[in-house]
Design brief:
heterodimer, B: about 180 residues, alpha/beta, Potassium Channel Kv1.1, Chain A, 2 domains, disordered N terminus
Chain lengths: ~230, ~180
């Protein structure tokens, strides 16, 4: 640091009172700290300083909510906000440099272009595969308001503790579910609130769960007619 | 990094936070002495000190020592961390999740931004996972919807981006900056 005039010294001393003790911490600790924020805000920390620029790329807990209230609330910026969100998602999936994930929560209130969503899901699928090898995915939560097929390897996470599926999510057939659930023996909480074609399957899943698990598991099912 | 010495009450080798003497029970509880980087002495019960993984392993390595030096920890955050751990010991003895949650929430609510931030490296250094989680959550709650400028001053971060770099990053992740509160 260069001091230009003696007057600056006082200024520097005063500023030292609020010393930056956080930026000195190890990357892992900062990433852990960022995992307490919604992913949107974790990414926002990239412009705090160069130290923070790439930290969000290694955060292993992702909590994404499109947060775009309906068209009617603010029609003039709706399109732009939606586009910003899609860009955000594209960049998130491309730039994240840590394939491992611990928790993944995705809430989409709006519907998005089919090819976009498919691309996101296939990225997610790859992360899950590489995380599943290490067996560290603990929580998967989806609230999705439009027809989407989740990656099939979603459920084969040995350490999965929480699985929640809400909305128009397409399930696999019963045999597949049976196989998948029998692989997730750490499961403690299962929530299915499906709408549309697969809504009735919830009941089957419930039975499979009861047969598969001999430990107590928190279940919440809701079957809605389409 | 030498600590500031402008605190009027700061005297070296003072005893702080000495626990209440055991008047009723004859059984003496073992005390452990911790020394902060600004040379303050904290005498804490063994059970509290063992909550600090770093201190615990220090004792396992050299059991005959009577004072554990904590070169990275200043007195103020250390005293707050000890306060937190003392309570956690009580909850360990008498588990009450609701009370514990209430205490943890109150513990962070009454702390200033700076106190919270200063405790994070301490909780990390002493490896107190529960406290680190409580602090991280409290910090996240305080900065979640704040502007970049607010968060910088919250942590005391110096911005070393050029205006152009900052603008480019802001454009790149435009959605991340949507919906922040007015400062």
């Amino acid at each position: 640091m260069e001091e230009t005039a003696s007057g600056d010294n006082c200024q520097n001393l005063c500023e030292k009172a609020n010393e930056d003790v956080i930026s000195e911490l190890h990357d892992d600790i900062l990433c852990y700290m960022l995992s307490f924020l919604p992913t949107k805000r974790a990414v926002a920390t990239s412009i705090l300083s160069t130290r923070w620029r790439n930290l969000w790329k290694s955060v292993t807990i992702l909590d994404i909510y499109d947060g775009i209230s309906g068209y009617y609330k603010n029609p003039s910026t709706y399109k732009e906000r939606k586009m910003n969100f899609v860009n955000f998602m594209d960049r998130l999936f491309i730039h994240r440099n840590n394939p491992s994930i611990l928790k993944f929560r995705l809430s989409l209130a709006q519907s998005y272009d089919f090819t976009c969503v498919n691309a996101w899901m296939s990225h997610l699928s790859r992360w899950i595969s590489s995380s599943a090898i290490m067996g560290n995915v603990e929580e998967l939560i989806f609230f999705i308001n439009f027809q989407v097929r989740l990656p099939e390897n979603l459920y084969c996470c040995q350490k999965l503790v929480t699985l929640k599926l809400h909305g128009h999510i397409r399930m696999l057939n019963n045999t597949a579910i049976e196989v998948l659930l029998s692989g997730s023996l750490a499961l403690e909480e299962l929530e299915l609130h499906l709408e549309g074609r697969d809504s009735r399957r919830s009941v089957d899943v419930c039975l499979i769960v009861l047969e598969t698990f001999d430990h107590r598991i928190r279940l919440h099912f809701c079957s809605l007619r389409s | 990094m030498s600590s500031s010495t402008d605190s009027p009450t700061l005297t070296t080798e003072t005893t702080q936070l000495s626990p209440q003497p055991d008047t009723e029970t004859a059984k003496p509880t073992k005390k452990i002495t911790l020394k902060s980087s600004d040379n303050q002495i904290f005498e804490v019960e063994e059970s509290v000190a063992m909550e600090f993984a770093t201190v615990k392993s220090f004792f396992e390595d050299s059991p005959s020592t009577d004072t554990v030096p904590l070169p990275n920890v200043t007195a103020k955050p250390l005293s707050q961390v000890i306060e937190f751990c003392k309570e956690q010991i009580k909850f360990k003895a008498n588990p009450d999740e609701a009370q514990k949650k209430k205490y943890n929430a109150e513990f962070v609510t009454e702390k200033s931004d700076k106190d919270l931030v200063d405790m994070i490296p301490v909780a990390n250094y002493l490896e107190i996972k529960d406290l680190l989680d409580v602090l991280n959550q409290a910090v996240a709650d305080r900065i979640e919807n704040k502007s970049v400028e607010y968060v910088r001053s919250f942590f005391g971060i110096d911005n070393d981006f050029t205006a152009e770099e900052e603008a480019a990053l802001r454009r790149e992740h435009a959605w991340a900056y949507e919906g922040v509160d007015e400062d």
